[in-house]
Every structure is written in C-alpha cells, then in structure tokens.
Amino acid sequence: MPGTSLDSLLSRFHPDTGAIDGAPTVTRRLSDLGGCFADPSAWTAVLSKGDPIVYTVTAMEPAGDEGDLHYGLGRIMPGCVGAEYFMTKGHFHAWRPAGEFYFGLEGEGLMLLEDGATGESRIVPLRPHHAVYVPGNTAHRTINTGSVPLAYLGVYPARAGHDYAAIATRNFRCVVIEQNGAPTMVQRKDLP
Ligand SMILES: [Fe+2]
Q1: How remote is the CA of residue 156 from the centroid of ligand 1, in Å?
Q2: Dist. CA 137–CA 160, nearest whole Å
C-alpha cells in the first residue's frame, strides 16, 4: 500500500456511456448474438432492419493475483427480439467457485441465474439500490426488461475468468419473455 499510486486505487466509471476511464470496452451488436435468442426468425427479422448495439461491457482488470478483484460496467440497451428482451450472452466463470456481486445503477432488469449442478433457474431483479449475489458455479445472464438502458457493475475475483462456450453450446434452460406485458420466465423446452 505505501507508495501505491492513486491511479491504481481510483477509477471513474460512467453509467450513462458505459465507459470506465482507461479501460477497454467490448461492444456486442445483434449480429454477434446468433444462437442466443430463442426465436431465430425474429432475430433475422430485426437484423434485416439494421444491426443495433445490444450491450457494452467495460472491464477494469488491474492485476490478476490471488485475492485481487476486478469489476465490469455493463450497459444493455432496451429492445426485444420477438418476445425476448435484449440481454447478454451470459457465462459461467472459468474458475467455477468464483461468485460475483452485481449492483444496479440505472434502468430496470433481471438476472437469470442457473445452478451449474442442479440446473435450477431463478430470476432476480436488478435495478438501482439492488445488489444481486451470483453464487459460484452459476451461469448468469443480464436482461434489460425496461424502456431505458440498464447499467450495472459486476465485481468478481481476478482469477474468475469467463467461460462463454459452456452456455453457448446449449443455452440457458429458461428464457425470459414478455407475456401479458410482464417479464416471465419459461422453460426453453416449453416454447412453441
Ligand atoms: Fe460473471
């Protein structure tokens, strides 16, 4: 700690733009999310009118030593593909025991959590003044169910890593769709 520079202790994040000063931003457009949405024809129909940004993630990852922490700023745009809301790809942590805290900053959404051992699925509200705990060995996806961008922070162990492939090959067991004007979780296998 003595002699540590202020730059390594302080960073500034911007929920309104999705930026963290000095950190790289990854932008995911609709075309990057093939296979994520339950209705491929709806995905193609939206894409035929353009290729909107669905979300950005900016990660502040200063060091990767045992015990260190990283954080990310996510920002998901409002929108739908068919009845399914704009959302992130979702992931497990490559180091499965790693948990994560998500803090809602702006907008209104949900986290879809799927237990890696039992397959049990839960949806948990994510909005300002809400902190969502993602236990270890849990696949997690963030969903914007509102009409404005959903911004949030995620804080995770530096060694957590991201495993997108495990969930990309089979997708989440459940899907969150708008039904009668409200977000509703349904089993993927029960979709028409
Ligand atoms: Fe994560």
Answers
A1: 7
A2: 11
